[in-house]
Amino acid sequence: MFDYLDDQQERFFTWCDKALQEYIGSGKAVFKKWWPRKSPEGSYELIFELAAGDRAPLRHSVTIPREFHDLLEREYFIDHPTDGDGDEE
Fold first, then answer.
1. pLDDT digits (tens, 9 = 90+) for 6-33
2. Three-state DSSP class for 60?
């Protein structure tokens, strides 16, 4: 069990987990890492990297709902680059 700062943070991480589970539910890929990314237009997406066998890692993105934008600005993008290069976990 994780200690979340507030309900919004808990809802965000629950949403991230569901988005990832929907994508890898087929069992053909293994999750490696994830990070949020902010576009120059101000929208956000969740990027996750998957490994499938011996192939190069695959990156997939899902649009992050607007309700989490303030949380990301407040908790994440203070100390992280806006475009993310995959080094964050």
1. 888 899 989 888 887 877 776 667 888 8
2. strand
